[in-house]
Structures are given as structure tokens and as C-alpha cells.
Amino acid sequence: MPAILCSWNLSTELSIMNGAQGLVCKIFTDVYPAGFMHTTCVLVKFPHSKIQLSDLPVGYYPIVPSTWAFTTAIDDGHGGSEKIRITRHQLLIQPAFAVAGHSAQGKMLPHVLVNLHEGGFAAYVAAS
User: Fold this and answer.
1) Best CA proximity match to 19, nearest among 53, 50, 48, 51
2) What is the pTM for the complete model shown?
3) Residue 127: exposed, middle, or buried by beta-carbon count in 10 A (0-12, 13-18, 19+)?
4) What per-residue confidence (pLDDT) applies to 50?
5) What is the 3-state secondary structure (H, E, C) of the chain?
6) Are 81 and 75 in contact (CB under 8 A)?
7) pLDDT of 106
8) Cα(17)–Cα(10) distance, rounded to whole angstroms?
9) Is a pLDDT exceeding 70 seen at residue 74?
């Protein structure tokens, strides 16, 4: 599955950066004690990268979930509030089956289907 890295620039020299396109090669999962499955790592091949990690082929990079947490107050139903802590885990990749014109600008894509009938600056961006 084609994917785009949506993260900070991990290594611009090795082409592992925000907006880099790759191919998902393997998804590693685990099961929480509550019984639901979650992803622990996604192995992505970045074809334009020369990265070489031990035990992985050239161009392969593991993407692990990032964690964010925050505290908020919710109504307790009795006129007061209760503080709760929310933790979120997210993989910083998105599917790349379709890419918007502006995010595709400047990329080396092997095949492109563009609607140039819409005209204007969007057509110029898509054609570039």
C-alpha cells in the first residue's frame, strides 16, 4: 500500500522526511488486555532513501506510533467538573492512493492522472 510520512523531518539527507512517499511492507500488531488489536510498528520502504538499519534491507524504515497526552475537565453531572487524562497513539503515515495537487507538487511520481479542465493555478500546480 502506498503511504506518505506525515511527521517531522527525521533525516533529510536520507529522504526520511515529512511528505516522503513509501510502500507499506509489513504491519506489526499486538492485542491489548482489553481484547482489541493495535499496531505497534509499520515497516515502510522508501525507494529514494539510502537508509540502512541493522537487520533491514536498504530503504526500509520502521514507523512506530507517536503518543500525545492532555488533561481536560468534563462535567460530572452534578454541577462540578472532573479532570481526566486523554492519551492518543497515532501512526504518522497516511494512505497515498490519491494525492492532492498541492501535496504532489515537486514529487517524482511514476504515473499521474490529472484533471486540467478545472484550470487556473490549480492546473499549473498539478502539471508541475
Assistant:
1) 48
2) 0.71
3) exposed
4) 92
5) CEEEECCCCCECCCCECCCCEEEEEEEEEEECCCCCEEEEEEEEECCCCCCCCCCCCCCEEEECCEEEEEEEEEECCCCCEEEEEEEEEECCEEECCCCCHHHHCCCCCCCCCCCHHHCHHHHHHHHC
6) yes
7) 66
8) 5
9) yes
